[in-house]
Design a protein that fits this description.
375 residues, alpha+beta, 2 domains, 9-stranded mixed beta sheet, 3-stranded antiparallel beta sheet
Length: 375
């Protein structure tokens, strides 16, 4: 993926897509059922709700979708912005699947990856490296189509604009990265004449209010129709097996995974020679804390489904909880760009962070040992 200039790969933030990507959510839009769409399996503990979305046309050439809840914002257990925006859109369309559920069934709650070629702030992003999209959308019973469009690809840009506006016309909000720079995920909620979109975003004061977008929305996933949602108990069981696989797999492409990712992270900290690593380091750390906190809540919410193996699920949750506590305690050793504007953090500080990461790796291994017994 590239920035708008197409000059080079440019991941900048762990929770966002760094190319031109937008997400279209086209499910349960105020109608009883769409062609080819079926109700979720009967064992689902979630209660299906009616869509609360409605399309408002206040003047010619302008439409806006009402009914989307406010974005929580950073530091409120919703730091993986793609997942929180998806959560809000699904809830508004009648699919009540909360943040922890989406993090767990997608594997994002358990994934750890680290780019071995460079310091990469995209390490924790759900679409970067080992993408979680196929697993996530299969689990929630939605078909999707991914587009990648740069702003200088004029024919594709025109098609993208048309697709977004058609989605709004149908009452389907659009998830998009970089609509309020930097590249956090947000939700396109409407359009105006002159190729202007309205959006809800983590940035630009758009947490609660729809505001004019300021950046190019960069990716496209058309959610074309719903299909039968797999039984949640089956999905939950598969998520435990997937968690074990994520920790045990070594690499995919340019990313190390699981235990190996911790090792590469520590190795890169030891050899860091300039301050350019700081931004990627802090966001990778925050992404890990957010993911494992979601893992704790997810595992405790599904433990009873595992019968006599419930104790192993709870043991794993306790180990992840201990990891989160260790990471929070160790956050003081993660340097900020503000504190080191013109210098490299001292080796002693980096060594202390390494010690925290090795402790986190040890606790994750214990959690995985418990999950392996629950499979």
């Amino acid at each position: 993926m590239t920035d708008d200039s197409g000059s080079r790969p440019l991941p900048r933030h762990p929770f966002f897509v760094w190319s031109t990507t937008a997400i279209f959510i086209c499910a349960s839009l105020g109608v009883p059922a769409l062609p080819g769409c079926e109700d979720p399996a009967v064992d689902s503990p979630r209660v299906r709700e009616r869509s609360r979305l409605s399309v408002v046309q206040e003047r010619p050439g302008e439409k806006r979708i009402e009914g989307i809840g406010p974005i929580h914002g950073f530091g409120k257990s919703r730091d993986t912005t793609f997942i929180h925006c998806l959560e809000l859109v699904l809830e508004a369309t009648g699919r009540k699947l909360d943040y922890d559920e989406l993090m767990g069934i997608s594997g994002i709650a358990f994934r750890m990856q680290f780019n071995v070629d460079r310091w990469d702030v995209g390490n924790p992003d759900p679409l970067v490296g080992d993408s979680c999209l196929d697993l996530l959308f299969s689990a929630i019973g939605v078909e999707y189509e991914l587009w990648v469009v740069r702003r200088d690809e004029l024919a594709e840009v025109a098609a993208l604009r048309r697709k977004i506006n058609e989605s709004i016309d149908r009452g389907a909000p659009v998830l998009a990265a970089n609509i309020m720079p930097p590249e956090d995920w947000g939700i396109i909620t409407g359009y105006r004449p002159g190729y202007q979109w309205l959006c809800r975003s983590y940035n630009g004061g758009a947490l609660h209010d729809d505001r004019p977008a300021k950046g190019w929305p960069t990716a496209v996933i058309l959610l074309k129709s719903r299909k039968t949602m797999p039984p949640l108990r089956k999905t939950h069981a598969e998520s435990i097996a997937h968690a074990v696989e994520l920790f045990e797999q070594r690499s995919r492409g340019s990313y190390a995974h699981g235990a190996s990712a911790f090792d590469f992270w520590c190795q890169n900290l030891r050899s860091a020679s300039d301050r350019r690593y700081i931004h990627a380091n802090v966001w990778t750390y925050i992404g890990l804390m957010d993911a494992r906190a979601a893992a704790v809540r997810y595992l405790r919410s599904i433990a009873k489904e595992f019968g006599s193996h419930e104790r192993f699920i709870l043991q794993a949750a306790d180990r992840y909880d201990a990891e989160v506590l260790a990471l929070r305690e160790g956050y003081r050793y993660v340097p900020s760009e503000q504190a080191f504007r013109d210098s490299v953090p001292p080796a002693e500080m980096r060594q202390r962070q390494i010690a925290v990461l090795l402790k986190a790796k040890e606790l994750e291994q214990q959690a995985i040992n418990a999950l392996r017994q629950a499979k």
